[in-house]
Amino acid sequence: MNVIIKDIREADCISDALILPLCEGESAAPYEEIDALLKGLIRRVISSGEFQGKLNQISLVHTVNMIKPDRILLSGLGKKEELNAEKIRHSGGKAVSYLGGLRFRDISLSLSHLNALRQSPLPFVEGGLLSLYKFKKYRQDKEDAVRMERFTLIGKPRKSFFNSISRLVATVSAVNFARDLINTPANDMTPTVLAKTARGMARGKVSLKVLERKDAEREGMDAYLSVARGSMEPPKFIILKYHGGKGAPIALIGKSITFDSGGISIKPSEGMEKMKYDMAGGAVVLAVIKAAAEMRLPVNLIGVLPATENLPSGSASKPGDIVRSMTGKTVEIISTDAEGRLVLADAIGYVKKFKPRFIIDVATLTGACSVALGNEAIAMMGNDSGLMERLKAAGEEVYERVWQMPLYDEYLDYIKSDVADIKNSGGKTGSLVTAGYFLKEFVGDTPWAHLDIAGTAWTEKDKPYIIKGATGVGVRLLLNFLKETR
Ligand code: BES
Ligand code: MN
Ligand code: ZN
């Protein structure tokens, strides 16, 4: 999809439909000039009560050769006093997905009124582009495929606007890239496929290294390898580096369990099919590195995906087993279903060798995350309040909201083992925070933040600009965060 900006009259923009955003109760005045050419059509649609400007309300009108766009689409922004970036995203999602559903190839948007309302039009475009995503790979019927090719923004561009738009397009395609990886079922999204996907990104300033089982053994990653033992699929410990700036790298770790059955501590079969999304953290890290390279962000990144399946078998690890992590710490495996923290422990051990400025891990780590916060917020824990504040602010801006949970010293008691240095489960009580605390024990002094996306990485219901399935949550948050990081 091509997003372009043109400084022309709205009436002269050849397109299938021209979107005109309006607030609740507003008259046609903001579009006076075009309405005159339309002989008062907009005024009529409003005065008839057909279009009231309510949030996400839309009204499509044919222009029968009075102006160049074939149609106009009035798009409701809701109450002026309540207008914010997220509502504008919703409105854009609603309008653009509607036009996408009509199979239009070429649409346009007037920026003038949003400008007058002192609102950035970028969220409107963002919501619009994100709303067009579909996961079609496994469908024979492609009829309802979106054909949108061009999105013309009409207005006077400021210099920074071109840069913002190209970042926005790169961000949306990164989100969709992550969504594709996550939605792909585990038979086609194995650790090997993830590694191949990463290999496809390695060019220019992005380099790749993949540790095979043997290499991981040599590194002493027994916590990670214990998870892989039950599966026939070879594990792949994937390391991507992006060299875009100076100084110590920022480490991004993404949980990459391509299927989590729970292992010997097997999960109930109901809903188990969803555990293909247990690699969402890894997909987010790949997508962020991809977009960071595209945008040439002036930072150094090291992305790590400890990829494996978690399956039961005769060779699987068992409750009670004790394994030694790369850092030397021994772990008693209470539940083989608490596998995420095992693979992350070794990923943390690995990135610490690079002396990163800070570590951010992204993981679908606990069921308790959605028990606590539902599907509305990422649970964050960490050891550096400055880093966490910045992540929270970055998340707020893109509406990938982050809520901090405590890591009280007392939680250590929950995961003390009688026989090893630590155990991988403290049971149900506080399991969101004890998972975080477990990771903290491996991080040591490096500034670190943990993002549990178990509640937000997947949605069962369509949202205004995110359809059912993988949400790609974390990509926009981290890219927005990195954009502010020098
Ligand atoms: N991948 C799951 C967490 C999860 C559950 C993510 C539901 C998304 C939706 C994780 O590996 C897991 O099984 N965690 C256990 C930990 C427990 C055994 C301490 C959990 O939360 O139940
Ligand atoms: Mn699990
Ligand atoms: Zn898991």
Provide a short characterization of the protein structure.
This protein is α/β, with parallel strands linked by helices and 486 residues long. It has helices at 32-37, 41-47, 85-101, 112-116, 122-131, 159-183, 191-201, 213-219, 222-228, 280-295, 340-352, 367-373, 385-398, 411-414, 431-443, 475-483; strands spanning 2-6, 17-22, 58-62, 71-76, 106-110, 150-154, 206-211, 236-243, 250-254, 256-260, 300-310, 322-324, 330-332, 358-363, 378-382, 402-404, 422-423, 448-452, 458-459, 469-470. Zinc ion binds at residues 257, 260, 278, 339-340.
Topology:
Elements: E1 2-6, E2 17-22, H1 32-37, H2 41-47, E3 58-62, E4 71-76, H3 85-101, E5 106-110, H4 112-116, H5 122-131, E6 150-154, H6 159-183, H7 191-201, E7 206-211, H8 213-219, H9 222-228, E8 236-243, E9 250-254, E10 256-260, H10 280-295, E11 300-310, E12 322-324, E13 330-332, H11 340-352, E14 358-363, H12 367-373, E15 378-382, H13 385-398, E16 402-404, H14 411-414, E17 422-423, H15 431-443, E18 448-452, E19 458-459, E20 469-470, H16 475-483
Parallel strand pairs: 1-6, 2-4, 2-5, 5-6, 9-11, 9-14, 10-11, 13-17, 14-18, 15-16
Antiparallel strand pairs: 3-4, 7-8, 8-11, 12-13, 15-18, 19-20
Bound molecules: ligand BES, manganese (II) ion and zinc ion.
How many structural domains in the coordinates? 2
CATH fold label of the largest domain: Aminopeptidase
Task: Output the CATH homologous superfamily of the largest domain.
Answer: Zn peptidases
Shape: elongated
Supply the number of helical segments.
Answer: 16
As a percent range, the share of helical residues equals 25-40%
Total count of strands: 20
How large, in whole angstroms, is the Cα Rg?
Answer: 24 Å
Largest sheet: 9 strands, mixed
Poorly predicted spans:
none
| CATH class membership of the largest domain | Alpha Beta
Q: How far is the N terminus from the C terminus?
A: 30 Å
The structural class is alpha/beta
Strand content: 15-25%
Bound molecules: ligand BES, manganese (II) ion, zinc ion
